[in-house]
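Title: Comparing notes on inverse folding

I've been comparing how different people in this forum approach sequence design from structure. To keep things fair, I'm posting one structure and asking everyone to reply with a full sequence. Here's the target:
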């Protein structure tokens, strides 16, 4: 393991030093500016500056030679450690030359308080019936009191869309219900319409609810769907939960701040 550490450290140090030598040679042998005779009272000419640069490079090469001679007398661990430090210092210096501007993260979406993926479920309709003589309060709700939460949410968020989906359980309609509804699909749709009627009855337009009842009605879509629980092992509670209506509220996204 230590062998590979030594090899990698020395290789990286060698690559870094080679890049440094190339950059130094390019700077040294760049076409020099024409010598300018110093004028009386003038400053140092370009020729004097070039001579000073050559002297500095000679001193640097001499210092590097002494360092290399010292490292040859040291053990491999010291050499590897020294090479690693040199590589890290060069990498840190190179990183300081160019600062990468990290783009600002996109603004976090505004929490609307409504999660359309978790609808308000009103369930336990009477079997084979869509009427609500006791209103929405006669139904079970999941999450608890979600209908009240839904109505309160309309005061905080402008409604873009209300999706109401009615359901019926897996059992066939009795003759009386079949003669009235025709099918479970029709029964499920009538349950969704009944909940829409109760929702519009509970909705009152005002300063906190800019939409009128008519506008809210236009933004409400009513659908029907089949049961969620099927098969041979369906409990009475499963059947009760399938006699339901789901409400999916979707609010308008908050407007982005200027800038």
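Reply #1:
Here's my take.
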């Amino acid at each position: 393991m230590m062998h590979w550490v030594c090899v990698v450290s020395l290789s990286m140090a060698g690559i870094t030093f080679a890049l440094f030598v190339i950059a130094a040679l390019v700077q040294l042998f760049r076409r020099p500016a024409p010598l300018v005779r110093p004028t009386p009272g003038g400053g140092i000419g370009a020729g004097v500056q070039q001579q000073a640069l050559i002297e500095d490079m000679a001193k640097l090469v001499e210092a590097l030679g002494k360092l290399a001679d010292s490292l040859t007398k040291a053990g491999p661990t010291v050499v590897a450690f020294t090479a690693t430090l040199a590589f890290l210092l060069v990498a840190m210096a190179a990183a300081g030359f160019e600062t990468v501007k990290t783009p600002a993260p996109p603004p976090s979406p505004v929490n609307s308080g409504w999660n359309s993926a978790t609808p308000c479920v009103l369930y336990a309709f009477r079997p084979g019936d869509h009427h609500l003589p006791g209103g929405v309060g006669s139904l079970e709700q999941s999450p608890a009191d979600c209908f009240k939460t839904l109505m309160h949410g309309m005061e905080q968020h402008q409604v873009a869309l209300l999706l109401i989906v009615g359901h019926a359980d897996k059992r066939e309609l009795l003759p009386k219900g079949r003669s009235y509804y025709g099918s479970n699909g029709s029964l499920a749709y009538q349950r969704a319409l009944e909940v829409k009627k109760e929702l519009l009855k509970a909705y009152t337009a005002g300063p906190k609810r800019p939409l009128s009842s008519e506008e809210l009605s236009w933004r409400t879509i009513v659908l029907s769907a089949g049961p969620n629980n099927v098969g041979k092992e369906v409990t009475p509670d499963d059947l009760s939960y399938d006699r339901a209506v789901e409400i999916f509220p979707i609010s308008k996204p908050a407007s982005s701040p200027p800038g």
